Every structure is written in structure tokens, then in C-alpha cells.
Amino acid sequence: MAAVTAVTAPYGLRFDAGRICLDLLVTAHPGEHLGSLPALRAWITGAHLVPPGTSLTHADASWPPRFRELRYAIDRLVRTQLAAGTVDTRPCDLALARVNALARPAPPAPRAVRGGDGTLVRVLDGPPGCTALLAAVARDAVDLLTDPVTRSALRQCAGDNCPIVYLDTSRGRRRRWCSSEVCGNRERVARHRRRVARARAGR
């Protein structure tokens, strides 16, 4: 199944890597997407760490650096996993300890309440704290990296100069790009230009 690229304007956030922790890694490419509090709020909402409509007005300037720190630790672990057997994993022990520490607290507690039409909807039992939200992302990373089947589906985009890592859940595990619309389209355009250039050279 092809990946669907979800982009949240105006921050250019993508949510198509297949896991919350991998979507966090995407926020570092091609530039910093979590450099501001509004951008982080948009990412938290877009990643479905909180139910729609959850207020994040209590978030403060300390939050983005803490998410970027977790992103760095997860990135080191994921890239070490992709290079398994070819690199010394010991330098990543500090990153592993950090992810484990951030995964330890309880994530935001959900509650089921009656919506306006009487159906049950999910809300959080109080404003979500930064520590609880970090725990949700860190636990997702722990789940991913300790599940052999899921871990084996980790792929790095085959696009030129694209460092994005995604989870390949396509049929036959044949997905090549982080996004068919982004890197896939770029590759198709490049192939077309090469064909045109060869055709012109053969005249």
C-alpha cells in the first residue's frame, strides 16, 4: 500500500513514516520543523498524541528542546538498527538509556465521555504534560525497536540525499521512498529528464 503524505500547514509537517517516533524524526528534514512552540503544538496534534481539540496553551518554551532531545536519541538508535552488524552499537548506549528514561513515566491518561450526539469520544484526563507526551513517543520507539517483525520493516528512503526513515508496510515490502509524492515524484521527473537527454543525444 502506498504511503499517504499528510502535511500540516504552515509548518510543513509530515505524518507518513508509519510510526509516531519516526514521524518525529522527519521533523529534522530538510530543516528544523520544531523550532517554535506553535510548530510543536501542531506536530503533537497532527501525530494524534492528543485527541482533536485538546488545548495545548499550557505548553511553554521548554517543550521544543525536550522533543528535539528525544528526536536525537531515537534517531541514533534507529540509524544504528539500520546499520546492524556493521557498526559498534556501544556509542548508542547513552541514547538508549535516555529513551528508556523518557519512556518510564505514564503517557497521557485517556477518558471516554459522551459527545454532543451521545456517542463516546476520547478526551484526556487533564491537560497533557510534556513528560507524559514524551513518554508516549519514547514508548512507541521502544515498541518499534524491540519488535523483530516491525523492526525488520524499517527502511531509509532511496531518494537522493533523503535521510528519512519509514516503516515499509507495503505488499511485498517494495516501497522505496519516504513518499511517492515527494521523493518518488522527484525520481520519476529525473528519469524522464534522463530519457529526454538520451533521446536528444541520439539524434
Describe the structure.
The protein is mainly alpha-helical. Helix content is 45%, strand content 10%. The strands form three sheets. It has a two-stranded antiparallel ribbon. The chain has a two-stranded antiparallel sheet with strand order 3-4. It is globular and about 70 Å long. The termini are far apart.
Question: How many strands?
Answer: 6
Largest sheet: 2 strands, antiparallel
Spatial separation of the terminal alpha carbons: 40 Å
Order of helices and strands: EEHHHHEEHHEEH
What value does the Rg take, in angstroms?
19 Å
**Mean pLDDT rating:** 88
Coarse morphology: globular
Strand portion: 5-15%
How large is the count of helical segments?
Answer: 7
Uncertain segments are: 1-5
Based on helices, strands and strand pairing, what is the structural class?
mainly alpha
Which strand order does the major sheet show? 1-2
In which range does the helix fraction lie?
40-55%
Topology, pairings included?
Elements: E1 7-8, E2 13-14, H1 20-26, H2 37-46, H3 63-82, H4 93-103, E3 110-114, E4 120-124, H5 130-146, H6 148-151, E5 154-156, E6 165-167, H7 180-201
Antiparallel strand pairs: 1-2, 3-4, 5-6
Helix pairs in contact: 1-3, 1-5, 3-4, 3-5, 4-5
